[in-house]
Amino acid sequence: MSLSYAILATLTDLACSGYELAKRFDGSVGHFWSASHQQIYRELNRLEERQWITGEVIPQTGRPDKKCYHLTEMGKVEMAKWIAQPSKSSRTKEEILVKLFAGDLVEPEILLAELRRYHQEHEQQLQIYQQIEQQHFADPEKLSWGAKCQYLTLRQGIRYEIDVIAWCKEALTLLRA
Amino acid sequence: MSLSYAILATLTDLACSGYELAKRFDGSVGHFWSASHQQIYRELNRLEERQWITGEVIPQTGRPDKKCYHLTEMGKVEMAKWIAQPSKSSRTKEEILVKLFAGDLVEPEILLAELRRYHQEHEQQLQIYQQIEQQHFADPEKLSWGAKCQYLTLRQGIRYEIDVIAWCKEALTLLRA
DNA sequence: GCGTCCATGTAATTCGTTACATGATTCG
DNA sequence: CGAATCATGTAACGAATTACATGGACGC
């Protein structure tokens, strides 16, 4: 259900094709939503049927034509309606926490190695986000209201990565003691 | 797929029935995994077929009999195998971030109200986790290795809530400026 | 020549949610 | 007397994942 709204939100920002949407869900938009291209194409068809979006075929030379989607007035209204409703809070499903919870079943070194790997992964992600921050949101106070909102979604991502990294360090310290 | 391992992990900690599992996924275990009772019963049947767990019917008086599950040796081995593999990192799907991303479509006050509500919700969750911390993990250094691992899953939850609350404050400050 | 990117899709399967169902017991 | 708790399930549906498929363009 909310995948459709995630797509609408992404299209609000910038009209694009299914393929491009999939890449955005993989990249910068990915820290608050993700979806495979199969999900996206299916959902785009439904949204077009409901007339919340319209697709425009853009002929291209040297590569396949693409179908560029943008919101209709109806789509904007529906999106606004959804935003006004209280969100249901979603639980994260972190495999590493499941592994820790059953930590007694394996050798300590296995979990420590996994924690180090996890730490590294999030360190890299943090750097990616911080580059985006520096390049696009150097002076947050001066952004337009809509841009501030978008900046805050990135801030959430940055904060999350910093916090996960700190947790990894805490975990490694406690488990090595 | 990983739901089965989440169940195995929970059973490692304490053998229990489907009903009790559902309650644990709703409570303390819930900050790293969640599942409905329908999912749990279906998965328990599959796990029993595969002989990763065995169920033992425990007659009770004054209430229905319950079927208590515990890991088999095979289950422990499979769990250990899974733990040794690198985890795939899961992306959170936070509706509030989708809403912010499309923030231009609604009146500022709607988003501010949602942020305040979100803030409140996480403040409450934090207090629940901190109570568990005080009651069960007063002196982390003195815990057994397995208990330290479990404590760290709670720590992740506590850290997350603190961070989300700080982010809410940052967001409200930026958007009101 | 091989892999990757562009661009879109179908099919099969598993996972997750919603609704419905039973039946006894305890609490107010 | 009604509601909630204990305990377990089935059925139907919708969402997500995985695998498979096409076919030209471009770089090494």
TrEMBL record, chains A, B:
<protein>
    <submittedName>
        <fullName>Transcriptional regulator, PadR family, putative</fullName>
    </submittedName>
</protein>
<dbReference type="Pfam" id="PF10400">
    <property type="entry name" value="Vir_act_alpha_C"/>
</dbReference>
<dbReference type="Pfam" id="PF03551">
    <property type="entry name" value="PadR"/>
</dbReference>
<feature type="domain" description="Transcription regulator PadR C-terminal">
    <location>
        <begin position="92"/>
        <end position="176"/>
    </location>
</feature>
<dbReference type="InterPro" id="IPR005149">
    <property type="entry name" value="Tscrpt_reg_PadR_N"/>
</dbReference>
<dbReference type="InterPro" id="IPR018309">
    <property type="entry name" value="Tscrpt_reg_PadR_C"/>
</dbReference>
<dbReference type="InterPro" id="IPR036388">
    <property type="entry name" value="WH-like_DNA-bd_sf"/>
</dbReference>
<feature type="domain" description="Transcription regulator PadR N-terminal">
    <location>
        <begin position="7"/>
        <end position="80"/>
    </location>
</feature>
<dbReference type="InterPro" id="IPR036390">
    <property type="entry name" value="WH_DNA-bd_sf"/>
</dbReference>
